[in-house]
Every structure is written in structure tokens, then in C-alpha cells.
């Protein structure tokens, strides 16, 4: 059976954005296994006692939850991205098996991570969505490989907006921001001169 994962932020002992994670899990379980029952995370996930600060909760699941693990969160240091092209990549759900990214990551050279271009459009990094600052607001690619829960929340709040972004458009932006459930918006910023082919 194909397993999936969900990464949930626990902040000072409290699960964050549970509804968004449950919606994504329900869609993935329906698409992959035809499962129509909902998994209620609040009743299953019990954060560690005395959990302080930011903790990463990793839920591995298929038709049912296979495991729940907690670990202190250590943000990755990402200061540079290499654009890599893959017109065949498909990552509609957050799969446990991430080998799909291994060949692409091998092309990053001296950069910290990759920024994937599919069919001429900017999509995601290997572990996050992305948004770009054009001086008047933040724009996120309209066709991400995997629409993240933080991306969903920022769109709903009007803090970012969607547009198709091509590599040739990057010059109009000032900086980029990596977006995922574990990061605060604006926490991981990258200057545009640190994005290369």
C-alpha cells in the first residue's frame, strides 16, 4: 500500500491548523483508497507533555493512521535555489516515499535546494511552496505541485495571491519566501540573485 505523510506544527503543545490538515488527508485518502470516513486528528494526536516552542508532528497514514512521531523542529537553512526542469513530475499528494525528488536534488549543485519548473511554470521547492515579493504584495505560483496548508491559509487571508510565474518573470521580484506548515510566513527569505539555472 502507498503511504502518505502529514506534517503538522505543534506550537507550545497545541496542534496548529488541524482542519486544513484533516481536509488534505481526507482528499488524499479518497483519491488514493476510496476512503470516505474522516480521520479526526484531535482525538488521535496527543502532543508530548511539556512541549515548548515549535515541534514537528509527522503522521504516516494510508487507509488508517500507521504512526505518529514528534521531534523538535530545526528549520533548514535555505539561502539559494537552483531552477530545475521536470515536465513529467507529479506530486498531487504528500507521499511518504519522496524518491521523486532525489534526481532533481542531485542537480542543485552548490545551491541549498531546488525550484522546480514544470511545463514552463515555476511550481515548488523540494519541500515547500514559494511566494515572490514584487514590491506591492506576495505572489505564489498558480500551479504548485502540492498545494500546502499554509499556502491555503495565506491565500484565504489575502496575504498572497496566485499567478502563473515563468522563469523569465523572476526579474520583476525582489525576494522569495518559502512556505510550509512549519515555517512562519517571512521566516525563510531568499534574495532573487540567489536563484539560478
Write the layout of secondary structure elements.
Elements: E1 4-11, E2 14-15, H1 18-33, H2 41-44, E3 54-61, E4 65-72, E5 81-85, H3 102-105, E6 113-118, E7 121-125, E8 129-133, E9 138-141, H4 149-156, E10 160-163, E11 175-179, E12 189-191, E13 195-196
Parallel strand pairs: 5-6, 5-13, 9-10
Antiparallel strand pairs: 1-2, 1-3, 3-4, 6-7, 8-9, 8-11, 11-12
Key terms for this structure?
197 residues; alpha+beta; 2 domains; 4 helices
Overview of the molecule:
- The chain is of the alpha+beta class.
- It folds into 2 domains: 4-72, 2-Layer Sandwich (D-amino Acid Aminotransferase, Chain A, domain 1), CATH 3.30.470; 81-196, Alpha-Beta Barrel (D-amino Acid Aminotransferase, Chain A, domain 2), CATH 3.20.10.10.
- The protein has helices at 18-33, 41-44, 102-105, 149-156; strands at 4-11, 14-15, 54-61, 65-72, 81-85, 113-118, 121-125, 129-133, 138-141, 160-163, 175-179, 189-191, 195-196.
- The strands form 3 sheets. A 5-stranded mixed β-sheet has the order 10-9-8-11-12, covered by helices on one side. Strands 2-1-3-4 form a 4-stranded antiparallel β-sheet. Strands 7-6-5-13 form a 4-stranded mixed β-sheet, with no helix packed on it.
- Strand 1 and strand 2 (14-15) form a beta hairpin.
Quick rundown:
The protein has 197 residues and is of the alpha+beta class. Helix content is 16%, strand content 33%.
Amino acid at each position: 500500500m502507498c503511504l502518505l505523510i502529514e506534517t503538522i506544527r505543534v506550537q507550545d503543545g497545541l496542534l496548529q491548523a488541524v482542519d486544513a490538515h484533516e481536509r488534505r488527508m481526507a482528499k488524499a485518502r479518497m483519491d488514493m483508497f476510496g476512503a470516505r470516513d474522516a480521520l479526526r486528528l484531535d482525538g488521535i494526536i496527543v502532543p508530548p507533555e511539556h512541549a515548548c516552542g515549535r515541534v514537528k508532528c509527522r503522521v504516516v497514514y494510508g487507509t488508517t493512521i500507521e504512526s505518529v512521531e514528534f521531534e523538535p523542529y530545526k528549520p533548514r537553512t535555505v539561502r539559494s535555489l537552483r531552477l530545475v526542469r521536470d515536465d513529467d513530475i507529479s506530486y498531487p499528494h504528500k507521499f511518504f516515499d519522496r524518491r521523486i525528488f532525489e534526481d532533481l536534488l542531485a542537480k542543485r549543485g552548490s545551491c541549498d535546494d531546488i525550484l522546480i519548473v514544470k511545463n514552463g511554470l515555476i511550481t515548488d521547492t523540494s519541500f515547500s511552496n514559494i511566494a515572490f515579493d514584487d514590491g506591492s504584495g506576495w505572489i505564489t505560483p498558480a500551479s504548485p505541485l502540492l498545494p500546502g496548508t499554509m499556502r491555503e491559509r495565506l491565500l484565504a487571508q489575502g496575504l498572497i495571491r496566485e499567478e502563473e510565474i515563468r522563469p523569465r518573470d523572476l526579474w520583476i521580484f525582489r525576494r522569495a519566501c518559502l512556505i510550509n506548515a512549519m515555517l512562519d510566513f517571512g521566516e525563510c527569505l531568499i534574495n532573487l540573485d540567489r536563484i539560478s539555472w
